[in-house]
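Need tokens for this chain, all 350 residues.
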Amino acid sequence: MAAVLCPAQENRIPFADPYILEADGIYYMYGTSYDDGIGVVMSTDLKNWTVPGGTERHVALSKDDSYGNFWFWAPEVYHVGDSYYMYYSSEEHICAAVSDSPLGPFRQEKHVPMLEEKGIDNSLFIDDDGTPYIFWVRFRNGNEIWSAELEDDLMTIKKETMRFCMKMSQEWEKIWPAVNEGPFVVKYKGRYYLTYSANSYESQDYGIGYATSDSICGPWVKYDGNPVLCRPEGLYGVGHHALFKDHHGRNRITFHSHFSDTKIHPRVIHISNWRIDRKGILRISRRKIRTPQMAEMRRNSKSYLSQILFRRKYDGKPYSEFKDMLVSGDYCPASIVEGTYYLEGIFKIF
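Here are the structure tokens for all 350 residues:
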């Protein structure tokens, strides 16, 4: 029997555990991939993605700027005030780092985890009153989801507020016990929705469920119709998702799947829509699942993305005026830089 493959894998995005940030008209995707840190790719349309600088990869967070030397997993990035905060795990310890740009470099002032004990999948939620919370996975009787308040620095856990949220309990979660992981919280009409993944990521029945509460402190009650996404047609092992809004304010979700029905790695990224219906049920569209791709490399490409990044800083200025202002890290279209170009997407001046 032939293996069932995900579509468009030739140009697949090289991540798992995806997270998408929208900032100033640009989408930034982060994910699990590199042995030496966390990578990022960029897009304007959620369909075609490019590597900053036109290189093979761009490391937003390097192990040289962080606690840990390996297992850099499940990053999430949030824009708060004038800074960007990255939450991720390294060597199975939850960490946080900060940057003034979504491209990084993200750095820890002190190379230490947020907790001494092991944990993964830390996710930020800031409530309407401005109180920041962290949700993450503790290794206890399997993978359990916990939460805690954060100090104003968004990096320090108030240990006295640590509280249990959930663990494996529903029948569908017991195919490959005992895993509840990948927490991600949203609030809708005063009600909190804690979404999560269950079963091991290695299982074809890895899937997404959710629980609700009238308080951010719980108790959390799982939806009795879980999972809300598991084995959609042609995909296996779907999970470790993140929810976000696109340029038009529409609710979107990104998640990964297995490579095929016979092979887990390399995992494949997908994007779909989600909504909460009149009955308060969170629903993920199976019909609108799409598989984004890395853009093909084309010489002398005048990509829309590079034009946006260039105009943001040098709009209306002739080359003779801005050439001395270009420093390492600035971006502009190849057509503007005398005879210089990179392949596809974003053109970087060194």
